From TrEMBL:
Record-linked PANTHER family: PTS-DEPENDENT DIHYDROXYACETONE KINASE OPERON REGULATORY PROTEIN-RELATED, TRANSCRIPTIONAL REGULATORY PROTEIN
Designated name of the protein: Two component, sigma54 specific, transcriptional regulator, fis family
GO MF terms, alphabetically ordered: ATP binding; sequence-specific DNA binding
Bilayer-spanning residue ranges: none
Species, as recorded: Shewanella sediminis (strain HAW-EB3)
Residues annotated with 4-aspartylphosphate modification: 57
Source species, domain of life: Bacteria
Domain Sigma-54 factor interaction: from-to ranges: 146-375
Keyword Transcription regulation found: yes
A GO BP entry: phosphorelay signal transduction system
Domain Response regulatory: residue ranges: 8-122
Length: 500
């Protein structure tokens, strides 16, 4: 292995004559050398820059070199240290090596002895760096709360590493259940704000008339029920991270106030007159298609550009390959511990079913399935028969579980949706409804296309939920992103029908 022709070295030697001699020895090896005589001077230098090599005398006028070695190992572990002394003993050499020194030289020594030691030290340093780079290039199975080694997830991990220390706003997109909040936490904890607050706010779960107060806080008497001053999420997240989940659900009027806050860092509490300034890093997320929301006029374009600086797209579980098996093994161990069960593994058939299913609810649905298996069964092996009924149909066809339900629900729209109930109907009830329909089926004009029936049911659910798509999706037992995709498809189908 070739040694770098140039490296930096800090020499700590109280003898001026020996210091000059050792400096020349090191320079002949290609080092750029800084020489100091006292321990305090060495610590001052190290606080300002870190050399590749530290040649450290043990006996110094103001402190022991061993004390400096311990501080270096604590604060600058990447520095290679060679200890030197005129009073060498075996015990002292052993102690210094145990404390982290690479080697121990007894004065006096010649240029050749120092040269061999320096070359060996630099070779070790290069090997350590090479191993570290190789380890960083390997797929990570676990990363900041995520589990997965697929290429798609490795891309997510690298993006998080790149943006963690930046103040640039991050916009996370992905289907429901893909781990958007986990991603937001990872960005926060991987960066230089990790010791500061992380404040999460779900814009879809807060009533329209309260969300401004939740973000900015309010003063006493600002509105009915405001019995005291209250700090908002913006204040609580000062010097930390503010995570705005389901940002596309935010009212347009509040979006304009949020835009000013992002631009200036300045805001006013509801009912207040005093402006406050904070330092906040913004991370936003949505399961919608943000630019589509902008085109439809539901999301401000200028706010989009402020928030959508660094986009991160989380892949759906069906696109993550063998990550499913990594996740189910982790979840099985976790739920074993929580529920006091003894499951150890899955049968080959169970693994095949789990991996071939397309998981419309993504990781959240997978968690529910494994939890259900653990709670309802007692064994050491998870068998295919223990999986929920949805796995009994053709593997990988989860949409087949949804379409019949929606088609049946459309015939019962008023009773189901007006009562705010999920349109899920069991197979027996569904078959009875279908059997009672022949008289209508005899009339061709009474039969409508399945896509149109599905469209009517979904639109009725959205209307019943006051336009809240995620809430409607939850009641229909599908993901919100599925609804957005279907809306685009309906426009195309409607156009084709019109042409015909």
């Amino acid at each position: 292995m070739e040694i770098s022709q140039s490296f930096t070295a800090l020499l700590v030697e109280d003898s001026m004559s020996l210091g000059a001699l050792y400096t020349e020895y090191l320079r002949s090896e290609g080092a750029k050398v800084t020489h100091v005589n006292h321990g305090e001077d060495a610590l001052t230098e190290l606080a300002q820059w870190q050399p590749d090599l530290l040649v450290l005398d043990i006996k110094l006028p103001d402190m022991s070199g061993m004390e400096i070695l311990q501080k270096v190992q604590t604060s600058y572990p990447g520095i290679t240290v060679i200890m030197i002394t005129a009073h060498g003993t075996i015990d002292l050499a052993v102690e210094s090596m145990k404390s982290g020194a690479f080697d121990f030289l007894v004065k006096p020594f010649d240029a050749k002895r120092l040269s061999i030691t320096v070359r060996n030290a630099l070779k070790q340093r290069q090997l350590v760096n090479l191993v570290e780079r190789y380890e960083q290039s390997l797929p990570k199975e676990n990363y900041m709360g995520f589990v997965g080694e697929s290429l798609a997830m490795q891309t997510v991990y690298k993006t998080i590493d790149c943006v963690a220390n930046s103040k640039a706003s991050v916009f996370i997109v992905g289907e429901s259940g893909t781990g958007k909040e986990v991603c937001a936490h990872a960005i926060h904890h991987a960066g230089n704000r990790s010791e500061k607050p992380f404040v999460a706010l779900n814009c879809a779960s807060i009533p329209k008339d309260l969300i401004e107060s939740e973000i900015f806080g309010h003063t006493k008497g600002a509105f009915t029920g405001a019995v005291a001053n209250r700090e908002g999420a913006a204040s609580r997240a000062n010097r930390g991270t503010l995570f705005l989940d389901e940002i596309c659900e935010m009212d347009l009027e509040l979006q304009s106030k949020l835009l000013r806050f992002i631009q200036t860092g300045v805001f006013q509490k509801v009912g207040g007159t005093k402006e406050e300034k904070v330092d906040v890093r913004f991370v936003s997320a949505t399961n919608r298609i943000p630019w589509e929301e902008v085109k439809q006029g539901r999301f401000r374009e200028d706010l989009f550009y402020r928030l959508h600086v660094i986009p991160i797209e989380l892949p759906p579980l069906r696109m993550r390959g063998k990550d499913v098996l990594l996740l189910v093994n982790k979840l099985l161990k976790e739920y074993n511990r929580e529920e006091g069960k003894q499951f150890k593994s899955f049968t080959a058939e169970a693994k095949k079913l789990l991996q071939s299913y397309d998981w419309p609810g993504n990781v959240r649905q997978l968690q529910n399935v494994i939890r259900q298996v653990v709670v309802l069964n007692s064994s050491d092996i998870v068998e295919a028969s223990m999986l929920p009924a949805l796995f009994k149909s053709e593997p990988g066809n989860s949409q087949a579980q949804i379409r019949p339900v929606i088609a049946i629900a459309s015939a019962n729209q008023p009773s189901v949706l007006n009562n705010h109930e999920s349109p899920a109907i069991d197979e027996q009830a569904g078959s009875q409804n279908l059997q009672s329909a022949p008289s209508e089926a005899d009339k061709p004009e009474a039969i409508i296309p399945l896509w149109l029936s599905e469209k009517q049911t979904i639109e009725a659910a959205i209307e019943q939920c006051d336009g809240n798509v995620p809430k409607a999706a939850a009641l229909l037992d599908i993901s919100a992103s599925t609804i957005y995709r279907k809306r685009q498809g309906w426009d195309e189908l409607q156009g084709a029908v019109s042409e015909n």
